[in-house]
Specification:
Blueprint lengths: L1 E8 L24 H15 L4 E4 L1 H6 L1 H9 L3 E4 L12 H19 L5 E2 L13 H7 L4 E2 L20 E2 L5 E2 L4 E4 L2 E4 L4 H5 L2 H15 L4 E4 L16 H8 L5 H11 L1 E3 L1 H5 L12
Parallel strand pairs: 1-2, 1-10, 1-11, 2-3, 4-5, 5-7
Antiparallel strand pairs: 6-7, 8-9
Amino acid sequence: MKNAMTIDVEDYFQVSAFENLVKRGDWDSIVPRVEKNTHLLLDKFAEHRVKATFFTLGWVAEKFPDLVREIVKQGHELASHGTHHQRASDQDRATFKRDVGDAKRLLEDIGGVKVVGYRAPSFSFTKDNEWVYDVLSEEGYKYSSSVYPVVHDHYGIPDAPRFQYTTKSGVIEIPLSTLPMFGRNIPISGGGYFRLYPYLMSRWAISKFIAVERQPYIFYLHPWEMDPTQPRMTDASLKSRFRHYLNLNKVDRRLTGLLHDFEWSSMADIYGFNDNSNKELSE
């Protein structure tokens, strides 16, 4: 079974955990590292002949258009992560519409391909903002991967469906992967959990998920997780620093194991969006 390899393309200083320390107006004054780190992932995927979905921030696309073109050139799916990494739960309808619409148009203009996928920053779709799917539909998105059916202090809809479902607007939601254990859904989709769990535990959990559920497993990672020498946010809370910096020096080796041990492709390929996504736009 092929599983979905997904990358949330954002820089280390744009994460939600640091949003009170680094204001959006300061982003242009910080030396970016996202281009170099994304190329590390592109090189690794090329080496292992893996195609992935790159949920790319509009801000990153505007700063590094050649990076976007390289993602497309290498045959990966180009998808949207919004424009400014603002949580959907912190936006009203008009702001959200502008954020996701501007990102889609910018990515399509630079990449020259149709963008149909979206992932909300910090998985910030909740039961209180289900109108987001109406907006995504209005802007031409076909699917979202923005719900994590877990208990977490910053995100999550614990009782959400665990596998893809069609929303009232017609947009398909593809939740992040979980493993039911001890009466709750255990997060196993990657990111900080991939750094927290020993690799053998991650491999066991993924293997069990595939064997039991007979569903594609979804993995996600950020380019900054490939960068153990990134600058430290010393003023961040102890919890935020623990979550962000834990085991960064082990990610490269663990990712190599993951690419070797399982079969991977893009969301568009696995879920049948190839007829709609990443096709060259007409003149």
